[in-house]
Amino acid sequence: MSFSQPFFRWRPHPWHGLGPGPEAPKIVEAYIEITPFDFVKYEIDKTTGYLRVDRPQRYSSQPPTLYGFIPQTYCGRRVSELSPKSNRGDGDPMDICIISERPITRAEVVVRANVVGGLQLLDNGEADDKIIAVLANDNILAKVNELKQIPEAMVARIKHYFSTYKSMVGEEPEVTIESVYGREQACKVIKASMEDYDEEFGRG
Q: Which residues, listed in sequence order, are joined to residue 53 by a DSSP beta bridge?
């Protein structure tokens, strides 16, 4: 049996088998792990490429946007160097939050996203930046290019979620948000993560 090209006989690994997109770092392809409708945090299994249940969402907080990662990125030395207080990168693909006007209710989808900014986040001393983007072909948000064009309330929700999503009552917070940055810095962080990926894994 013959197959048209391109064709994957087996499912590609979402981290390694997909790509960041030809227009990265400004416009990227993103793999979605969780949606604003999920009460459980799902995370990609690095070995198999399938989603695993990481943990139930703590308290009443749910992710305010689509949340996933940019394929063929890696938070390593270069990403850490852009985060002055970090000890190292967290060793994961670059996380991304994607805002859309229409609700997208399912995960394990790939979306094209226009990068507008990000959060410089530390998780136990590790650089764990969260890129913020908008759905590239969104009817309302497609022309948004900077974080300052996003309503402050939405940015505040994203900050609150990541400030509290690992917190437990009576414990010191594991996560701190060191700064909020715009599109230019976000593109630098993504580019650094793509170069870190090349150094760690190579690019086929």
A: 42
Those residues whose C-beta lies under 8 Å from the C-beta of residue 125, and which sit 6 or more positions away, are 85, 86, 87, 88
Q: Given 3.90.80.10, 3.40.50.300, 3.30.70.1140, 2.120.10.30, which CATH number is that of 27-201?
A: 3.90.80.10
CB contact at 8 A, 139 and 101: yes
pLDDT, tens digit, for every residue of 76-119? 999 999 999 999 999 999 999 999 999 999 999 999 999 999 99
Residue closest to 166 by CA, chosen among 90, 106, 99, 93: 90
Write down the pTM of the prediction: 0.93
CA distance 77 to 89: 6
